């Protein structure tokens, strides 16, 4: 789908879309068109009880006296409070509402914003287009029957607006973030028989190297050589050996890097502590943290952001086998600390622990942010709405929260405490990877990870199990979401981009 920004005008053909606000029902161009088609818009609004509130819409096919194929009026609620995410949401809704018909060209008319608006008109135009673009994502590469594929008809999405040049410039940045999000969606949707540590690592290199990101791939021998006994333990039962990928985007040589770490379990069967079969297929998306991390690197690189970012993803497949790690095994991590493996299904924290040690030792980052589909307890606590965050620095947690509100990838801070920390003490080793209790499961996982964070390292942990996989028992659930690319890109650019 092509997206373009044209000069404000009333298109004569195709579908024309107007926004209507509860505090300003008619924009000037909507008024003009209404008069031209014998007030069919006003009449339809009356019948539909349309007040311009959020979620309302009126759709009119082939209006008389015009050459337009259809008119769609969508409610936005109060114009005064409409923000970036409101325009993104409406862009998405417009796309979904129209994609099921046979329209080729959609034109959204955005009138000049008046003094009551929160955004400048070019900002709202760019946000609306961003929302439509994100909504247009499809994963249909394994649909061989044209009819059953999800292909949609819209080929050109036009915004007719004021300051259309500025809108296009603003949109170019959003488009880069969307491309990062699409990469994350692609890898999330790929099945475990296609995307496994080796192929995944190669894909990352192919995607990011051409964009100026330095990509290094380490194999199972390197992982052992680095002393990453916890990471290595996870992949042992799989015929597909683990990989660690280190990515560096260095556009800012004046600051220590921001460090990102992502969990990339390409399939999580649970290992010897095998999961129940119902829903196990969803564990193809257990690499959601790594997807967000590589998507963010793509977005930052495409935008040529003035940032220094090191990103590491730990890729492994967690399978049961004669070579698998056993419950009760004790392994030595790169940090030197020993871990008693109580439950082989608590594998994400094992991978993250060693990757976090590596990034601290090799790069001394100014911040370590790890992202992972880490616990079922997180799904129980916050579902698909908010990701849970844990940090040793409240200011960083606040900044991430703000970025999440802006981008509609929301996060909520949960506490760490020494009384939770002691729960991961082990009888036979230093630390155990599971408490054998459901109590505060997301928190005890975070406490486990914190054991590997050095005293003076700023650290934030993001558990995206719920927001990335959604509530799969809910039939309305939208499927796997590339949660985190928009969040991290906004957070890094806002807080860590160096402005010369
Ligand atoms: N990958 C799962 C967590 C998960 C669950 C992600 C549901 C997305 C949706 C993780 O590896 C896991 O199995 N965690 C265990 C930990 C427990 C054994 C301590 C869990 O949450 O049950
Ligand atoms: Mg697991
Ligand atoms: Zn897992």
Any overview of this molecule?
The chain is α/β, with parallel strands linked by helices. The protein contains 16 helices and 17 strands. The chain has an eight-stranded mixed sheet, sandwiched between helices. Strand 3 and strand 4 form a beta hairpin. Helix 10 runs parallel beside helix 14 and helix 12 crosses helix 16. It is elongated. The structure holds ligand BES, magnesium ion and zinc ion. The site of magnesium ion has 4 residues, from loops. The site of zinc ion has 5 residues, from strand 9.
Brief description of this entry?
It contains 16 helices and 17 strands. It has helices at residues 28-36, 40-47, 84-99, 121-135, 164-189, 197-208, 220-225, 229-235, 288-302, 348-363, 376-382, 394-407, 418-421, 441-450, 465-469, 485-496, and strands at residues 2-7, 15-20, 57-61, 70-75, 105-109, 156-161, 214-218, 243-250, 258-268, 308-318, 330-332, 338-340, 367-372, 387-391, 411-413, 431-432, 459-463.
Considering the chains and any ligands shown, give keywords for the structure.
binds ligand BES, 6-stranded mixed β-sheet, alpha/beta, 8-stranded mixed β-sheet, binds zinc ion, 500 residues, binds magnesium ion
Topology:
Blueprint: E1 2-7, E2 15-20, H1 28-36, H2 40-47, E3 57-61, E4 70-75, H3 84-99, E5 105-109, H4 121-135, E6 156-161, H5 164-189, H6 197-208, E7 214-218, H7 220-225, H8 229-235, E8 243-250, E9 258-268, H9 288-302, E10 308-318, E11 330-332, E12 338-340, H10 348-363, E13 367-372, H11 376-382, E14 387-391, H12 394-407, E15 411-413, H13 418-421, E16 431-432, H14 441-450, E17 459-463, H15 465-469, H16 485-496
Parallel strand pairs: 1-6, 2-4, 2-5, 5-6, 9-10, 9-13, 12-16, 13-17, 14-15
Antiparallel strand pairs: 3-4, 7-8, 8-10, 11-12, 14-17
Helix pairs in contact: 3-4, 4-5, 5-9, 8-10, 9-16, 10-14, 12-16
Zinc ion is lined by residues 265, 268, 286, 347-348.
